[in-house]
């Protein structure tokens, strides 16, 4: 089998502002983390202090041998109040982008990676019909100031996350609605109380903030799709050459006997329904971590005997190949914008990356148009509700001293990138 990647292949690692920068105090998540009764294991705090240490981190990424860096610009910093643009924060991101270019690292910029300004939640968040235009205005402000430095834009990270979370029953019993005739459980009561407190803090209502990522209602999904399309147009109007795409969380859907029909429904909900909104995009951002076995009733539990990651899902690096093959049918260039594993055992990460990349090579051999691979994540960082316990990084971070330590997987990916081939 060929083991070479195409010339110009983007080799990188990804981060997201809230998970690494630290002190993202004007965002909705900061409120969720700090409101009593929080479901977050711990607050994000200083995170990896990447807001201050970005130069070292980008230099380190470059020295490893990687040639691309996917990171996000934080809306809550750029537009701290509606319509008020912070020039100082744009200047910060200018420095981040310039540092990338100094080291010959291609930046892939995400405009929204889960966190939103507090004020957006007050105005109805991702269910408000005003949000697409507000998001597009922010995108335009970013591109006007920084556009010449930004070759790739991911508008919204995992626009389908609301659907995915609902499917995985991540928030089961936490929707504040007990079925008729049933007692509201203690857990649900506590969750509702926390949501009410968050809503007070955000001058909003529990209905508006309860789906603090995106919700899975048709109306909310329509808002997310419109936000993507309007932002893409805003970006293109300022900088037509910028390559624009959305990113989607895609587990490989594997129908089990009798599960074909359900699998087709899930494929539509998680993926196909977003295709019309992506028609004008330049690329598709593929994000994959595991597979999803589907039976007639829905997603099945992990297969017995399978190795699990720290996220409690199956260690299944081959899922990336399956997802790329599905997405390839849309006929657009693909960039793997996230693929990774949460583990304390870095040798499992080494194995994961190798096997995932073998899958990418098989896709390339079949002529599929994969342009790059961004490992999630550069650094061990804030894994949302789970806090700092899951370790996704190529690089470990001491959160007291902020010292960085390369793991063997970092050297492996750097070596593969430098040689642009998978070596045994
Ligand atoms: C996501 C996000 C990342 C996560 C990563 C690991 O895919 O949920 O883009 O922010 O940290 O996926 O779970």
Keywords:
three-stranded mixed beta sheet; beta-glucosidase activity; TIM Barrel; 424 residues; binds D-gluconic acid; Glyco_hydro_1_AS; 40% helix; eight-stranded parallel β-barrel; alpha/beta; 13 strands; globular
Note the topology.
Elements (H helix, E strand, L loop, with lengths): L9 E5 L2 H4 L7 H7 L15 H15 L3 E5 L2 H4 L8 H16 L3 E7 L5 H5 L8 H16 L5 E5 L4 H7 L18 H16 L4 H4 L8 H21 L4 E7 L2 E4 L4 H11 L12 E6 L2 E5 L2 E2 L19 H10 L5 E6 L6 H20 L4 E7 L18 E3 L6 E3 L1 H12 L5
Bound molecules: D-gluconic acid.
Estimate the global geometry from the Cα principal axes: globular
State Rg.
20 Å
What is the succession of H and E elements? EHHHEHHEHHEHHHHEEHEEEHEHEEEH
Give the oligomer, counting copies of the same chain as homo and different chains as hetero: single chain
Assign the CATH superfamily: Glycosidases
What structural class results from the helix and strand content? alpha/beta
Query: Based on the structure given, which CATH architecture is correct?
Result: Alpha-Beta Barrel
The CATH class turns out to be Alpha Beta
Family: Belongs to the glycosyl hydrolase 1 family.
Protein name: beta-glucosidase
EC number: 3.2.1.21
Organism: Anaerolinea thermolimosa
Task: Explain briefly what this protein structure is.
With 424 residues, this protein is of the alpha/beta class.
How would you explain this protein's 3D organization?
This protein has 424 residues and is α/β, with parallel strands linked by helices. It has one domain: Alpha-Beta Barrel (TIM Barrel). 40% of the residues lie in helices and 15% in strands. Helix 13 runs parallel beside helix 14 and helix 14 (346-365) runs parallel beside helix 15. Mean pLDDT is 94; it is low at 170-182. InterPro entries: GH, Glyco_hydro_1, Glyco_hydro_1_AS.
């Amino acid at each position: 089998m060929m083991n070479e990647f195409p010339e110009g292949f983007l080799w990188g690692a990804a981060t997201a502002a809230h998970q690494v920068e630290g002190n993202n105090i004007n965002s909705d998540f900061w409120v969720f983390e700090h409101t009593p009764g929080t479901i977050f294991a711990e607050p994000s705090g200083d995170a990896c202090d990447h807001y201050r240490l970005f130069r070292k981190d980008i230099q380190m990424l470059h020295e490893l041998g990687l040639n691309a860096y996917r990171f996000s610009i934080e809306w809550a910093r750029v537009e701290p109040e509606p319509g008020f643009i912070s020039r100082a924060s744009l200047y910060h991101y200018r420095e981040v982008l310039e540092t990338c270019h100094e080291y010959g690292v291609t930046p892939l910029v995400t405009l929204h990676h889960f966190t939103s300004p507090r004020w957006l939640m007050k105005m109805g968040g991702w269910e408000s019909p005003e949000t697409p235009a507000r998001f597009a205005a922010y995108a335009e402000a970013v591109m006007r100031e920084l556009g010449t430095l930004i070759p790739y834009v991911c508008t919204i990270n995992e626009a389908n996350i609301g659907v995915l979370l609902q499917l995985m029953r991540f928030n089961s019993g936490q929707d504040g609605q007990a079925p008729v005739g049933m007692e509201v459980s203690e857990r649900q009561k506590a969750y509702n109380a926390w949501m009410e407190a968050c809503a007070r803090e955000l001058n909003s209502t529990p209905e508006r903030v309860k789906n603090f990522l995106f919700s899975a209602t048709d109306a909310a999904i329509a808002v997310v799709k419109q936000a993507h399309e309007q932002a893409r147009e805003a970006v293109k109007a300022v900088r037509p050459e910028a390559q624009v795409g959305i990113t989607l969380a895609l587990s490989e859907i594997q129908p089990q006997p009798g599960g074909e029909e359900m699998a087709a429904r899930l494929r539509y909900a998680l993926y196909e329904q977003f295709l019309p909104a992506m028609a004008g995009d330049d690329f598709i951002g593929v994000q994959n971590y595991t597979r999803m076995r589907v039976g007639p009733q829905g997603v099945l539990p992990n297969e017995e005997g399978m190795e699990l990651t720290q996220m409690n899902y199956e260690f299944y690096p081959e899922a990336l190949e399956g997802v790329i093959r599905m997405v390839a049918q849309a006929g657009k260039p693909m960039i793997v914008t996230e693929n990774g594993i949460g583990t304390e055992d870095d040798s499992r990460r080494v194995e994961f990356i190798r096997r995932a990349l073998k899958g990418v090579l098989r896709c390339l051999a079949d002529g599929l148009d994969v342009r790059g691979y961004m490992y999630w994540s550069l650094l061990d960082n804030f894994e949302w509700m789970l806090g700092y316990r899951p370790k996704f990084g190529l690089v470990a971070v001491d959160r007291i001293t902020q010292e960085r330590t390369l793991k063997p997987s970092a050297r492996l990916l750097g070596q593969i990138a430098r040689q642009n081939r998978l070596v045994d």
